[in-house]
Amino acid sequence: MNEASRRSAEEEEEEVIFQPNTPEFFANPHLQYRALRLREPVYAVPDSNSWLVTRYDNVVHILKDGRFGKRLDSSGKPKEIEEDIKPAVELLDLFMLFRDPPDHTRLRGLVSKAFTPRMIDTLVPRIQAVTNELLEELAEREEAELVAQFAFPLPVIVIAEMLGVPAQDRQKFKDWSNLLARLIDYQAPRKLFVEGSQVVLEITEYLKSIIAERRLNPQNDLISGLIRAEENDQKLTENELIASCVLLLVAGHETTVNLIANGVYTLLTHPEQLRLLQDRRELLSGAIEEVLRYESPIQMTSRLALTDVTIGGRTISRGQEVLPVIGAANRDPEIFADPDRFDITRQPNLHLAFAAGIHYCLGAALARAEGQVAIGSLLRKFPRLTLADQEIVWREMVVFRSLSQLKVSLSR
């Protein structure tokens, strides 16, 4: 039996299973994704009202099809929410990430006016300066833990400065962001919403004071820009303004931390690709795109079927949840040749790390810029960077793909 036939036989024998909250899944979700993609690409999750979708073409279809949205039309009285989780639920409800047109169109249009490519271009020198500062601190050490000492602080500093948050309050933002990101993970438990609601009350009061000050004394920052943003004489309400700032904090921070840490780890575990990048620095942008495909910072998203829809021969009923698995689609062999191979020269690379359709990531350009500056500068500063002896532990999250820590040797 040749190699291709042997692999095919092994894949046919793979059990179709989805057990996300297990050590095996957190260590390598791609084994389960591959079995699902091969055997049940539209998979009814047992004991739930949800479907997993793992093939690239189907994922793109769902992300772009207006028959899938974020919420069902409702009438009558609003759904009652228990008081101890109400702040968190109501804040998430205002995220444009969880809105459909026309609300989504209005919110995105307003936010994008203050989040333009020109603003990203002006940020690059500051991203580089912050990166240099963090690397100088690392240079005094023989070993470093890159998640806490590099990947985590860089995007927090950048997004905090964009919003106009004082430097002394960045630690608060780090702590808030870390918890709020867990609220949008797969099947987040109720107790997390209780804890998250206390954080929401804190961050709401904090942002209200900054907003009030910016209304009196506008600055050259994102909050001032959001206050000024207008489209068809519509402005963001204060609650929408707060929700938009929190979403930018969580989305702009969590995913970029993952991109940087996943990128460094993947390069260090693929030394031939690392050497290629060190020899050919012009491949850096392609390396970032391949990291986004290979270890996507966001592994899945969600939609609701707004009507009965047939996908991949399976009928999804109105009101059922659909989970397009971006991490699985990004390794679909129908789209990507030898998809489990990390290849920084891969062309084309039509990954879905930033989703597609109307919810395509607004901060994609910023994430790419931070990833290129951070990883490129790290490798230039420490050309002999290697992994330190450690057990690699991935955070116990399903939606996000992120390392708990990443210890490296900095010998130059």
Please render the helix and strand layout as text.
Elements: H1 3-13, H2 23-27, H3 30-39, E1 42-44, E2 50-53, H4 56-64, E3 68-69, H5 86-94, H6 103-113, H7 117-138, E4 143-145, H8 146-151, H9 153-163, H10 170-183, H11 190-216, H12 222-228, H13 238-268, H14 271-279, H15 284-294, E5 303-305, E6 309-311, E7 314-316, E8 321-324, H16 326-329, H17 364-381, E9 386-387, E10 407-409
Parallel strand pairs: 2-8
Antiparallel strand pairs: 1-2, 3-5, 4-10, 5-8, 6-7, 9-10
Helix pairs in contact: 5-11, 7-9, 7-17, 9-13, 10-11, 10-13, 11-13, 13-15, 13-17, 15-17
Biggest beta sheet summary: 5 strands, mixed
Number of helices: 17
Beta strand %: 5-15%
Strand line-up across the major sheet:
1-2-8-5-3
Distance between the termini: 47 Å
Task: Kindly state the number of beta strands.
Answer: 10
